[in-house]
TrEMBL record:
It comes from Streptomyces cellostaticus. The chain crosses the membrane at residues 28-49, 61-79, 113-132, 144-163, 238-259, 266-284. It comes from the Bacteria. Residues 3-130, 144-283 form the EamA domain. GO terms for cellular component: membrane. The keyword Membrane applies. Belongs to the EamA transporter family. This is EamA domain-containing protein. The keyword NADP does not apply. The lineage of its organism: Bacteria, Bacillati, Actinomycetota, Actinomycetes, Kitasatosporales. Keywords: Membrane, Transmembrane, Transmembrane helix. SUPFAM superfamilies: Multidrug resistance efflux transporter EmrE (SSF103481).
Length: 285
């Protein structure tokens, strides 16, 4: 069960990153984050009301609030880093986020077996290679590296916090709702401050109607990924769930190949193969 939900997480996050990357080509990154999260919060609010999720309110929701504060910062930093590029450095470097939940799992006493350790090493190597790392001639600004590391820390923190925010499915819906409301509030405040400084919130000509379905997809895929990761981490080793969930760069690369006809470099194809091998080792370990 852990492997299934963690791999579903990587699929959803990979597609959400692909959609978010496309949207930020024409729309400011912070606007994409706030709008997509607001749509997700609206849908989650309806689910919470329908399921009576308010009955699960308790101290654990503070974990969701903290995750809601870390999430927008991580997403904004990641999108800005992708815009500065090169993506072949940003994408694999962001997978350092896996260090936070894996570290938490080890501190809590989890000890993966030898086969799982091998699977983790192979899978992480595969993810880094699947990002298409720049091996030469790629100047990287310090700001890009800093933004990517901030994003990785933020993503890893969300990984760890959302796992602690609930203990059952009904509570999970409520915690995800609280997380998204917090994200919208924090991101909205940042967007307002940005606009006050003269940065436009919308592209020239306004936001096209065709962007709304894409924003909805990005927001809902992201929140669904948070949910499936929480289930994966609660029903199995966090170390395994975190590594499998971090395979999303492979999905993003494959989506770019399928939808944008971007050709995979040899190193990316090799990385995808290693990621698959690592996944098999983790699933059987």
């Amino acid at each position: 069960m852990t492997a299934f939900f963690a791999l579903t997480t990587s699929l959803l996050w990979g597609l959400a990153d692909f959609g978010g990357g496309l949207l930020t080509r024409r729309t400011p990154a912070l606007t994409v984050v706030v709008a997509s999260q607001a749509i997700a919060a609206t849908v989650l609010g309806a689910i919470v009301v329908a399921t009576g999720g308010w009955s699960e309110a308790g101290p654990r929701l503070w974990f969701a609030v903290a995750a809601g504060l870390a999430g927008p910062l991580a997403l904004f930093s990641f999108y800005k880093a992708l815009a500065l590029g090169p993506m072949g450095v940003v994408s694999p470097l962001a997978t350092l986020s896996v260090a936070v939940p894996v570290g938490v799992g080890l501190v809590l006493g989890e000890r993966p077996g030898l086969l799982q350790v091998a699977g983790i090493a192979v899978a992480v190597t595969g993810v880094v290679l699947a990002g298409g790392p720049q091996l030469r001639g790629a100047p990287v600004q310090r700001r890009t590296i800093l933004l990517t590391l901030v994003a990785a820390l933020g993503f890893g923190t969300v990984f760890a916090l959302i796992t602690e925010a609930s203990t059952n499915v009904t509570g999970l819906f409520l915690s995800l709702f609280v997380q998204r409301v917090t994200s919208v509030a924090a991101g909205g405040a940042a967007l307002y401050a940005s606009v006050r400084r003269g940065t436009p919130a919308l592209p020239e000509g306004g936001l096209p109607r065709t962007a709304l379905p894409a924003l909805a997809f990005v927001g809902l895929a992201d929140v669904a990924a948070n949910g499936t990761y929480a289930v994966a981490a609660q029903h199995g080793p966090v170390t395994v769930a975190a590594v499998l969930a971090s395979l999303y760069p492979v999905v993003t690369a494959l989506a770019a190949r399928g939808f944008l006809s971007e050709r995979l470099r040899a190193v990316q194809a090799a990385g995808a193969g290693l990621a698959l091998l690592g996944t098999l080792l983790l699933a059987t370990g």
